[in-house]
Amino acid sequence: MSRYRLFALFDNFDEAREAIIELKVMDLREGGVEEMRMKSPIPHPELEEVIGARPVIIQRFTFFGAVFGAIGGFLLAAGLSQATFIVQPQGGKAIIPIPSNLVIVYEGTILIGILATVLGFILGARLLRKGSTLYSSKVSEDQVGLWIEVLDSHYEKVKDLLWQHKASEVMEEKVP
């Protein structure tokens, strides 16, 4: 199913709020609205609650990176001590000494955890995506912009809803 991106500019903040609320109600009833973001020269926390926050994935990347780093550090230290076991006389020492390996495990945890966090940030911030061409410099002056990604089946409804709420301009593009 194809998708469209719409970018609507509003002169009046109250009309933008009403459009967002009506779009959320329509999305809860019928679906169709894939993503919605608001662009404004000033923050509007009351609308951020209505739109909802995007899920944050960085914590998961950090956690799993740290776990895999700890496991990898332990396997590295244990593997190296096993590889040299034949040449070393052990004399009653443990084959895999835990206390001295804790430093390697700690370093692996930190290193892989940080690298996974950076990767999670890049993916979460969508830095590798091709950005949308829909934007207007009027948003940085005094207008409120509403960026919506909608399914093809609800495209006309959403566009009509934006015009009903007195959008000054509606730009559109088809998602490739």
Overall pLDDT score: 84
Helical residues, percent:
40-55%
From the coordinates shown, what is the CATH architecture of the largest domain? 2-Layer Sandwich
Instruction: Please mark out the parts with pLDDT under 50 across 5 or more consecutive residues, or reply none.
Output: none
Radius of gyration: 26 Å
Distance between the termini: 11 Å
The DSSP helix count reads: 5
SSE pattern: EHEHHHEHE
- Number of structurally distinct domains: 2
Q: Tell me the β content.
A: 15-25%
**Number of E-state strands:** 4
Q: Quickly name the level 1 CATH class of the largest domain.
A: Alpha Beta
CATH topology (fold) name of the largest domain: Alpha-Beta Plaits
Query: What topology, given as strand order, has the largest sheet?
Result: 2-3-1-4
Taken from the alpha-carbon principal axes, the silhouette is rod-shaped
Task: Give the structural class.
Answer: alpha+beta
Largest sheet: 4 strands, antiparallel
Put the structure in a nutshell.
The chain has 176 residues and is an alpha+beta fold.
Descriptive notes:
The chain is α+β, with helices and mostly antiparallel strands and 176 residues long. It has 2 domains: 92 residues, 2-Layer Sandwich (Alpha-Beta Plaits), CATH 3.30.70; 67 residues, no CATH class. Helix content is 50%, strand content 18%. It is built from 5 helices and 4 strands; from the N terminus they run βαβαααβαβ. The longest helix is centred in the middle third of the chain and has 27 residues. The chain is rod-shaped.
